[in-house]
Amino acid sequence: MSMQTIKDFSTKARTDSAVGEKLKACEKLRDLIKLAREEGFDVDEELFYPPNDPQFSAEQLSEKLANALLRC
């Protein structure tokens, strides 16, 4: 698992509207991780938080999750 894996999942969520809608519905990080794994991406929670660069835009995430991950 790596930042590239998270970036690849983010890209899939941008290009696949069904995955994008599911991502937007995630309210908690564990929901996002579960979705990523269901889509075949092996991700780890620690990689989502700073100091790592965010791989998602605020528009891709629920407000609650954007606040947690993007420090909006």
Describe the protein in words.
The chain is mainly α and 72 residues long. The chain has one domain (3-70). It contains four helices and no strands. Helix 1 crosses helix 2. The longest helix has 13 residues, at 3-15.
Structural class computed from helices and strand pairing: mainly alpha
Largest sheet: none
Total helix count?
Answer: 4
* Shape category: globular
How many individual domains? Answer: 1
Helix content: 55-70%
Q: Based on DSSP secondary structure assignment, what is the total number of beta strands? A: 0
Q: Which residues sit in consecutive blocks of at least 5 with pLDDT less than 50?
A: none
Please report the distance between the alpha carbons of the first and last residues.
26 Å
Range of strand content: under 5%
Chart the SSEs and their pairings.
Elements: H1 3-15, H2 17-25, H3 29-38, H4 63-70
Helix pairs in contact: 1-2
Give a short overview.
The chain is mainly alpha-helical.
What characteristics describe this protein?
72 residues, mainly alpha, 4 helices, 56% helix, globular
